[in-house]
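Before going further, learn to read the protein records used in this course. Taken together, the tokens spell out the fold as the letters spell out the chain. A record is reproduced here so that you can trace the correspondence yourselves:

***
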Amino acid sequence: MVTLLQDDQHSFGVGETRRVCVSGSNRQMGEQLGEACRPSIAEALALVHGEMEKIGPITHFRARAQAYVSAIEKVAPYLVEEIRGLARGAAVPFEDALLLQLRFEAVGFDGRGGDGCSSFAIKRADGHVFTGQNVDTVEEHCRLGTVVEMRPDYGPDMLFYAYYPGMIGYLGINSEGLSVFGNALLSDGWRVGFPRYLSCRLALEQKTAAKAEETIRGLERASTINLLFTDPSGDIRNLEQTVDEVETLTAEDGRLFHTNHYVCERFRGDERLLDILPDSTVRRAQGAARLEEIDVGEGDLFEQVKSVLKDHQNHPSSICRHRAETSRYDADQWMTVASLVADPAAGRVDVAFGPPCETDYQTFYLP
């Protein structure tokens, strides 16, 4: 069964509900997602192809995408089946449906089409965890952001945000109360391997933060990412990753804020993203300070953490990010295309499709 809850299947407008619900086998869920979002998947492909063509011909990327299939099949062959279903439902070539999952590996930061992001987790005095992030990238992705609900035949139900329809996993929660959020990191050594968007999907299929960490540690990663996991036990785990290694950071006093540079001493020599996103250190310091100000024993933490995500210290390259009128570095032309705040134990994610200082949050529940 597929349910498309929006006024229009593409070119979303302000105030529209952007939620797609799919269920069944992996092949069925892929087909349903592709069919329901066919027009907007065509828009997403035009956008992604445009980013790739700044680097090379799209035929090159379609051919290279095939090299990732065996890496995905080695770990999760059912996800390849889901992508094949997506291609069929959207009436696009399999290679294009695959490229929607490989945008980050294909474009990376060479095409200046990467992403930034600021993520957080905070634990209330009773152990209840709130988490989420701002999603920062090129402005064009703002109009296509989508919330996908998946109810697979096996495993937990999932509710996640995607940059565009056609992604089969990214940032969100599952019916076990697990959350998966994260942000870009950059070190050398990118290669053909298991792609980052699908690593988020694998994590979302787990029951606990510990199991999600175990899953990620077992991957032969294609690229680098920081992933932040929480679960209903109050466990908060932040995984900084190079392609070969993982370092786990834990919350201090029930609070954690992460941006786009390696924090652990072990990986600081691998750091490559600060040249592109020099504002990362300012955002992390400001976010950590704002979280520290929150009284975890009182008040509405949902609204308090939204206030943190609206912070404009170091504007426009702030936690709530805006395009700079005069560019000093490539990434100061990125903006916050979505802001996510989750209460995973309650099955709730609030999403602002755009900078949260000027865009209302919509509330989504995982039934």
Q: What stands out?
A: Confidence is low (pLDDT under 50) at residues 4-16.
